[in-house]
Structures are given as structure tokens and as C-alpha cells.
Amino acid sequence: MIEFISILKNEMNDYIDLCQSEGKSIVSIKSGIHNFDTYLNRIGYATKALSADVMGSWINQLHPLKKVTISWNVKVVRQFLYYLYTLGLNVFIPDVPAYRSDYVPYAFSDNEITRIFEKVDALSFKRKDGKKSIIQFSVYLRILYGCGLRSGEALKLRKSDVDLNRNILVIKNAKGKKDRIVPMSNSLAQLLKSYIRKLHDTDSDGFIFAGRNGFPRNSRWAYALFQKVLKQSGIIYARENHERAGPSPYSLRHAFIHRAYRKYAEATDHSFDDIIPFLSAYVGHENSNGTDHYFKYDNGLFSDAMIKWIALLTACCRSEYMDKTLMLPILENFLYTYLPKEKGRGPNTILSYAYVFQLLFEFCEQSYGIEPSGMLLEDFQIETIRDFLFWLETARQSGASTRNQRLSALKAFSAYLGKRYFAVSHSYRQSVGTAEVKKAVPARLTYFTIEEIKAIFNLPFKQTASEQRDRVMLSVLYASGARAQELCDLEVGDLIWSDDSEKGCRLTLHGKGGKVRIVRISPRCTELLRNHLENKNLKNMLSRDKHIFSSQTHEHMTPSCVSAVVNKYVNRARAINPHLFNEKKYSPHSFRHSVATHMLAAKISLPTIKNFLGHESIQSTLVYTRVTDAAIDTALIDYWKHAAELNSQIDSVIIPENIDLVSKAKQLKKELSE
Questions:
Q1: Which pTM was predicted?
Q2: Per-residue pLDDT tens over the stretch 409-419
Q3: Which among 8, 250, 547, 669 is most buried, taking Cβ atoms within 10 Å?
């Protein structure tokens, strides 16, 4: 039994009683509050007022834990802090650290599903109750795969929850304390009927999957048997460093949703958006966003679209007691504590923000003679930030979009000051608040046409190690739509090989903001990639953490190196084909733009392109719907033909002269009123 022992023990007990009276599940709440209680007692905290320093140090000492655990602890304690605030206590309520799950659900192929059930049915038993356990496990897996239940929902089923007359399962008190009815197929219903008749011959309302003590089997039982089946099936289920979790019984729920979508889409003409709401209700999701999450990792679900795409590819070949008025210490805390630990921002974002303030310090030193170490928040005048932005545009020749990007970093710091240092930051926040975002001319997207892509890949690559590496790099860029940084970060362990040579390999790309996505590349590109790994001796298990592409001096290639490779072969192709490559400058991102533009031209849907490219919002994908020059030329030719035909028809018509339109209108009005 958990007992609270800190200075806030009475308030904690009262809060738990309040949660219980509201019908909340207090087990997890009590555990989270207990962790906070233990920390306060350990540091000997003796006052009920909770400052920002105390809450910050508590969050910092959580960081050996997983990000999801830290986020959960802060969420639980935040609710308790809101309760203390209603009691009139002076407490600081921290932000929840941003958390993006790097979990990649394992997508079983049809062949793997078949092998799994074959091995399940062939399991042997040694213990006295082993036969019963194996029969239960076989039925349990078939319910997961046949109905898409969560593992806990299936394990807690009772005999009364199974209606064999109507072929339905009644799921009670599921996630979010919701109930739902789940239909099942006739074959699964017959299997359940035989199972219940054989193992549940009494009339008692027992658990369907009960152990020897009558209680339901637990998830450890299911997981242990499932791992045994995976091993016998020859399915590699986890990386050595455990960065990507392997398949579990829950993965069969993913497989059910994928299979249900494919079958329904093949049987009807309904779109993705039409099918998702039905699937969401069936599997017990609160809204369609939960279901859409299952589709972002496997582009193989959009089979028709990806077949078109692969065909197109084949054709192309620091101090706790700081002076709060000094800007620099507060800025360091913002950049190196708040952003990474509480907001979850990546190192590239933090580096970009730090560079903005470096420029701001340079401007203030040149214009006002204030050194960075002596700058105060009160030094900012209402026009300071506006003058700084004007200096960026004039002295540093920055464009409007770059200017706006710098301003966004200044605004982020302003928001932070408003939360933590409100009283002393008025001058800075006012100066930033008066600066407006300037309208920027949309940047022209540089992309390669189909002919230009062919020209690049038809170049005579030399048989040297570097040029053969470059050939594979360019192929992967175009086949996957990867960003330059994603290509550089690609490791051997990020490759998921397929048994079917016609499907191609899948790449696990680690994108911006810590997001992870899986994309499938063409069979031709897969072959090039496999040969590259063999030539580099990277196909053994010890090489899983090594980067696929490396430079001559560094094992981990940089984006600037990728840019140099792209420019090298674009210039070479331009020299051979002077009528192509009309843009002044191309970059690795031009391949990404080309992927989106060519997929759109192949009539692949925007949701598919969005998931393939890993965009956070479909608004980012809509950029590629801008009409291309070729489309404008085609439309103009059609318009000119139409106009010529129309003019010839007008010339042949005798137009009467001297028509009094006003009289005609009055006459028509009179006729209509009669």
C-alpha cells in the first residue's frame, strides 16, 4: 500500500480521494504522485510552495527514464498542482515535455501471418496444463487477428461476452472505460463454439482464457509464447540495441486493420477517408486520428498507388540562482534546458535558435555598444527588434522568409519569458510583439523533369567505389523522397528486407522533429542498395549500427557532402544535355520535390504522398499542387484551339445591328408579369 510522507502528504491523500470520488482509476495517478512525493521527501523540502526551480530540478532528475515515462509523470503531477492552486497555494505548473514516439509498429506480411499460425498449431507441450495453454493461445491469436481486439480485451473476455447466436463479442470497460460490440466471421464463431464446448463445459460465467487459478491469463503469458512462435517462424523481431521494438501480440491488431482496409477497398469504390470512420468505430478508437496512425508506417497499404509509383521509378532508373534581469543566463537556460528537456526540440532546432541570438548580439554590439555578457532584458526598446530585422535584410541581405524564420525564434523566447520571467521581460516582449511577419514571395520549387531524371541515371558512372556509391545515393534519394539529413542518418539496421523480390526493400527514415516513417523503394533501387552493402561488407549483424553512406574521411556523411554529389552529376548531365536543367541551382531537396511532383502527375492521392514524404500536415503537401510550366503550356494550347474554333463560328454568324437592349428588357419584364 502506498503512503505519502512529504510535506504535502495531506493534500496528496485528499487529491486521491477526490479522483476516486470522480470515478477515475487511481492506481496510475497514485503511482505518479508517489514518485513526486518521494522526491520532495528525499531533498527534505519543507514548504508547501513549489517554485519553478524545484519543479525544474524534479523534471531534470527524471531524465534517465524513457521520454514517454517522463511525459506521463509530468502530466499526472500537473493535475495535482492545479488542485493545489485551487487551495490557494503558490505553485509553479511546468509544461509537459514534448514527446514524439519513435515506436515503429511491425507490419506482418501475409507470408509471415501464415507461418505464425502454422507454428502455433504445431506447438508442443511439456507441462501438465500445457495442452490447454496452447489451445488457448491458438484461439487467442485468432481473435486478435480476426477481430482486431487489444490484447487485454481478448484476455478479459468471459463466456457471457460471447454471443454465438449473433456472432458478436461484447467488449466491456475497454480503454477509456468504453464498451462496444464487435462482429466476427462465421469461421471464427465456429472455432469459439468448439473451444468453449471443449474447455468450458460448466455453466459458470468464467473467463474464456483462464489459468489454473480461474483468473485470466496475463500479457506475459501471451508475450512469452508469441516470442517462441516468432523464433520458430524465422522472423527477426528486434534490433540488438532495442531502439525499435519488435512485434508483439498487439501487432496482430495492426495486421487486422491493414487487412480490413485492403479487403474493403478492393470490394468497394470507397476512398480512404470513407473507410477510416468505420474502422475507427470497430476497433474502439475515440476518433479517426487514432486509426490513421496505423497507416503512416507502411506505404504498402496504398498498393495501387505504389505500383504506379514503382513503375514510374523503373522507367526512370546552467546557475540556479541567476540574476533574472541579465539576458544571457536566461537565454542559456531557454536553449539548453527548456527546449531539449521540456519541449523536446532537436539539436538542429536548438542550433538554429542559438544562431539567431548570436546575430542579435552582433547587431546590438554594433548599434548600441552593448556586449552580450552585459545585456539586460530592460535594454530592449520598442524599436530594437524591428531595427534588428531591418539590419538582417539590408546588412546581411536576408530574404523575407529568412527574416521571418529569425523572428519566430525571437517569439519563442518571448513566450518562454512570459511564462517564467514575466515581471522583468516586459521590454523585450513588447519589442518582439510590435514586429510583424513580412509577406514572403513563395520560393520556386526546383525539381527535375522525367527527362532530366533519366539523363542523370543514364550517365556513365565509373566503376570506382565513390562513383558507385554516388549512383546508389542518387537512386535512394529519388526512390524514397528522403531529405539529405535522413539519407545521411540511414543505418544498416534501418533496412527492412522483403521475402518478395518484386516488392522492394523498406527504409526506416528518421525525419524532422524525431518523427519516424517507413517507405518502400523500387526493386531496382533495392538491388543497387544490396550490392552496395555487399561491396562495403555491411551485411553482417555487427554492421547494423553503421551508416550506409560514408565519405572518404567520415563514417557519418554530412548533408553538404550530399549536395556536392548532386551538383557534380547535375553539371555532368547538363553538359551532355544542354537543353535540359534550366534551373540555376539544384540541391538534394530537388529530388524530394521531384518525387512529389511526379507522384502527383501519376495521379497518386495527396494522403499517400503526405505519408510517403513524412509531412506533418497535408498543407505542406499541397505546395506541390501548384501548376507546373508544362501543365500551363498544355492548357494554353487547348485554349488556343478552342478560341480558334469559337472565332470561326462567330465569323459565320450575322450579328443584327441597332438592338435596343433596354427596350427588349422592358418588354420581357412585361411579358413575365402578365
A1: 0.53
A2: 999 999 998 88
A3: 8
